Fold this protein.
Amino acid sequence: MTIFWHRRDLRTHDNAGLYRALRNETDVLPIFIFDKNILDRLENKADARVEFLQNEVSRLANEYREAGGAMRVFYGKPLQIWKKLLEEYPEIEAVYTNEDYEQYAKDRDFKVAKLVEGRGGRFRAYKDHVIFAGDEIQKKAGGPYTVFTPYMRTWRAKLDERISTMVNDEGKELKVSFYLKPYPNRKYFNALAPTSKFGKKELVVPSLQDMGFEPGNIDIPPTEVSRELIKNYDETRDIPGIEGTSRLGIHYRHGTVSIREKCLRAMKLNDTYVNELIWRDFYSQILQHFPHVENGPFREKYDAIPWINDEDHFQAWCAGKTGVPIVDAGMRELNETGYMHNRVRMIVASYLTKHLLTTWQWGEAYFAEKLLDFELASNNGGWQWAAGCGTDAQPYFRVFNPESQQKKFDPEFKYIKEWVPEYGTADYPEPLVEHKFGRERAIATYKEALNGN
Ligand SMILES: Cc1cc2nc3c(=O)[nH]c(=O)nc-3n(C[C@H](O)[C@H](O)[C@H](O)COP(=O)(O)OP(=O)(O)OC[C@H]3O[C@@H](n4cnc5c(N)ncnc54)[C@H](O)[C@@H]3O)c2cc1C
């Protein structure tokens, strides 16, 4: 028997690891583990991301069932589940999965691989979550890029290095980069372990309630995005008051869409969108090469900044009550929908780390708790960029002026009025920190701390 372990790849189509398992092996049993180590840390028991996962895993199990295949879903600590699984099925010869580059996941996989190999089995992991992983894009002289533009150029050149042919849905032959070629998994579904091998009870998917969670009231964006939206993306992406971005973040994060498929489509429609997907790979490889960023600044001298870390200011920022309308609109959008527009993420992050001189790590943790599309590498990269301490970061002396940003990107107050209805009335507070004062204080504080190091 072979196990295919789904994690951040909750789909059966164009799935690299699943394809290898189905092609190379027989009797392939897909599994998923709701990880208690992660779920126990979530304070909000109506966390929309858990509901999303539970729905998607149930959908996946149904999809397999309809094709005659079984899927087993567990709730617990991965290592303990694996120990039980290997005892229950001593005939397991191989485990296939897709790579996960976060440190927690790497440590977990290392331990599971040792368990499997200790019993004479094989553990195989494949690239699926990104187009190019860590070592695939290197500087000419070797080593990882830490600046985006040259990384992006090499990324694009590598994509063109290997061209292969594929047949599209209409039976037409197309030339595509080998790296974007889809995996035709469905063709090999006959390698799935049949449902008849398992008892009914074994095939039950744990419910939200079984895991101590309940449904939230947050809508999940669809997996399909109109052609028009991607086509106009470069013109609409910076305007928070309109639906000008794809909102696919949560789907990229959990693999409910294929990154290759979306990239291939975007290449025909809008190059700026492709660039954003390259940013995603860029931050992923930063996390792979510089794991210290998870716990501190990429540029270590930024550790010297004497953050004020005023708890009341931080709470006002979280609640969208800073008295700065574009910041408050963004934070309220996040609190109510689990989403915040990218332009506004940059503005609120700048306001927190510069005007309020609050550590980026508090903001990063708040986003991690609230964002539907939370992705450690991109969130960390975005926060370090805003605070000036990351790779290719905004220099510390460039401090966003929230008012100029609003004039440029929300000139008619459409976005602000949607989220801050009391703006312009006596109920709306004065800013916690005025722009001129905040800007000068931030520059002086950063300058002094960095010059001393
Ligand atoms: C402070 C801060 C925190 C952020 N936290 C996250 C996070 O936790 N998860 C996350 O996916 N993105 C994060 N981003 C990047 C970006 O804001 C989101 O990817 C984007 O807003 C998601 O909306 P969308 O799906 O409509 O994106 P679109 O504009 O439609 O872009 C398409 C996809 O490209 C990728 N992408 C776009 N911009 C970036 C970027 N700057 N860096 C990396 N990938 C990008 C995402 O996967 C996104 O879904 C953060 C940015 C900042 C400034």
Observations:
- Residues 237, 245-249, 252, 276-277, 279-280, 283, 342, 345-346, 349, 367, 371, 373-375, 378-379, 381-383, 386 surround flavin-adenine dinucleotide (CB under 6 Å).
- The CA atoms of residues 317 and 331 lie 7 Å apart.
- The chain is about 45% helix and 10% strand.
